[in-house]
Amino acid sequence: MRSRDASKSDLLVAVTAMDEVNIIACMLAKKNGIPHTIARIRDPKFLSEPVDYIKENFDIDLVLSPELITAREISRLVMTPSAINVEDFAKGRVRLLEMKLSPRSPFAHKELKDITLPPSVLIALILRDHHMIIPHGSDRLLPLDNVYFLGNPKSLAEISSHGHAKYQRRTKKALIIGAGRTGQALAPMLEKQGISVKVIDNNEDHCQQMVERLKKGMVLCGDGTDMDMLT
Q1: What is the mean pLDDT of residues 68-85?
Q2: Which residues, in sequence order, are bridge partners of residue 174?
Q3: CA separation (Å) from 195 to 76, 148, 171, 172, 198?
């Protein structure tokens, strides 16, 4: 039975366990005058479609996929090996990067006013001994400080690559155990970034799906906890 007040709602959030139910709920919501819709969608066959296609054909304004969100977060951290944490804003145009300062960093023991940063990068926050410091020009960066850099991803990558943090080794190879929804989303992301990817899963259907998603990566069907296989 349809509620008389349903059409007066400003937002519909469809997060049932079934993608199809969430999609239909959003379509019906738009037809009944609800202006904004959010749906949880987990099946890769839906997520492989462009975002504009989903919005136009399914009347969904925002798609949430826990597995896709997880894969993107892992990808960001992998591609920024010196980072403790990475957060993106403004559709990826602005990034907040948390790094632990290495004793060997050229920034160590320098006052902020004497540090030359790449264009469009700011030091937004310093965390030292569990105390938060809003930085000023006379503040110094000390080894093992957690430093928060704010700027565009390209400039922040320059900071990471020049060894300003504790860890600076670029990831070249990745082994993913599990070819479920998160693994299927993550592996192609890493491959597009030039990382050599190997995937292990004991489900033949998952392995076949992964083979279709990767261009150069290796997919092994077996137990990822088997030490002989890992060797």
Answers
A1: 78
A2: 197
A3: 13, 26, 7, 5, 10
Cα separation, 222 vs 203, in Å, equals: 8
Q: Is the pTM of this model over 0.85?
A: no
Chain centroid to Cα 157, Å, comes to: 15
Q: Which residue in the block uniquely carries the two structure tokens 């969904």?
A: 60
Summarised one tens digit per residue, pLDDT across range 25-47 is 999 999 888 999 999 998 877 77
Predicted confidence at residue 111, as pLDDT, reads 92
Question: Tokens 């693994």 — which residue?
Answer: 183
In contact, 210 and 183? CB cutoff 8 Å = yes
**Residue 181 to residue 129: CA distance in whole angstroms:** 39
CA distances from 31 to 14, 18, 42, 96, 116 (A): 15, 20, 24, 39, 55
Q: Give 158-193 as a DSSP string.
A: HHHHTT-BS--PPP-EEEEE--SHHHHHHHHHHHHT
**The token pair that represents 109 in the structure block:** 């023991």
